[in-house]
Design brief:
This protein has helices spanning 2-11, 20-32, 49-58, 80-85, 102-105, 121-133, 159-165, 170-176, 192-206, 216-224, 230-244, 286-304, 309-316, 320-330; strands at residues 39-42, 67-71, 110-114, 135-136, 145-146, 150-155, 179-182, 213-214, 249-250, 256-257, 262-263. By secondary structure, the protein is α/β, with parallel strands linked by helices. Helix 9 (192-206) packs across helix 11 (230-244), helix 12 crosses helix 13 (309-316) and helix 13 crosses helix 14 (320-330).
Length: 331
């Protein structure tokens, strides 16, 4: 633990929290940072995937070289290959000058491809070739250019499901997921929520706002809310409440959470799942009853997430590996 704390202080001091799930994720990053293996970060939006990617880079032998982040979802499909691999003059309409792509910019360092699931199949094929050959051809050129780049990728989508549907290449998936790591959702991180909220109030104060505290009702509301937007949503909630509230201490009434724009403390919790029916002559087999309830809850989570296993696992408060094991067990 001391080794992890020391490492964290040097390379990941911007990743806040002390929950078991977060420490486990940091330990995995600590172990793989020094090697050159590809890392695939999965998890819900707002869980801090770029922070983890930067920690991998800072703790690696490539730390003195560039860290280049690319949001694949923000680049138009017809420009993605030029953006990643560069182009020569005249390669397409509007290419009035040659341009080095993001791979060339990250040479010797780390390239972080966020939302990698949004890459079109044509770009996936070229990306795979670059990773395997360690060289690329800019758009419109036949000249091979060598590149030395470590690739870290991230997605909130279920890539295994996309592979099965043919929308993501299986060979690329295996190449990117040498070290897969699913980041925990905020609602599963317990006391980290209060710690992150306090840090958010300090950041607001540092930018010229007021330094406010949180009372017991606010802490209870923060714990009860499911945080679909995770840490990013928490930061926005705290900043909004700080700006709008008059008091020096925020209460639950100041935290307008969720689509209802009502304090979460005033929103009734969802009903608990019903217990399995029994009859007077039914065997009181606890294990069978629990397995039956677990099956129904897993089925409901998969229905709500349209079959997305990562989202279903988050709804159930499980990690994705545990959910997959249960799916295999129950067939």
């Amino acid at each position: 633990m001391d080794d992890l704390q020391t490492w964290r202080g040097r390379f990941a001091d911007d990743i806040l929290g002390d929950s078991a799930l977060l420490r486990r994720a940091l330990e995995i990053i600590r172990r793989v940072a020094g090697c050159g293996s590809s890392v695939l970060l999965s998890g819900e939006t707002g869980t801090g995937k770029e922070l983890f990617a930067r920690a991998v880079h800072r703790a690696s032998p490539r730390a003195s070289k560039p860290f280049i982040a690319v949001n694949c979802a923000a680049i138009p499909e017809h420009l993605i290959e030029s953006e990643l691999f560069g182009h020569v003059r005249g390669a397409f309409t509007g290419a009035s000058a040659p341009r080095a792509g993001r791979f060339a910019a990250a040479d010797g360092g780390t390239l972080f491809l966020d939302e990698v699931a949004e890459l079109p199949l044509s770009a996936q094929a070229k990306l795979l070739r670059v990773l395997e050959q360690r060289s690329l051809c800019p758009v419109g050129s036949d000249l091979e250019i060598g590149v030395d780049v470590r690739v870290v990728t991230a997605t909130h989508r279920d890539l295994e499901d996309m592979v099965s549907r043919g929308t993501f290449r299986a060979d690329l998936y295996f190449r990117l997921s040498v070290v897969p790591l699913e980041l925990p959702p905020l609602r599963a991180r317990g006391g980290d929520i209060e710690l992150l909220a306090a840090a958010a109030t300090r950041r607001v104060a540092q930018r010229g706002g007021r330094l406010v505290g949180l009372d017991r009702s606010a802490h209870a509301a923060l714990r009860a809310y499911p945080w679909p937007g995770n840490v990013r949503e928490l930061n926005h909630v705290i900043e909004r409440a700080t700006v709008l509230a008059d008091a020096e201490t925020l209460s639950a009434a100041d935290l307008l959470l969720g689509d209802t724009a009502a304090p979460v403390a005033l929103v009734p919790p969802p009903p608990a799942p019903p217990l399995p029916p029994t009859t007077d002559d039914a065997t009181l087999d606890l294990r069978t009853a629990i397995e039956g309830l677990e099956r129904r809850m897993i089925r409901e989570a998969l229905q709500r997430s349209s079959g997305n296993r990562t989202e279903a696992a988050a709804l159930l408060g499980l990690n994705r590996t545990t959910l997959v094991e249960k799916l295999r067990r129950y067939g």
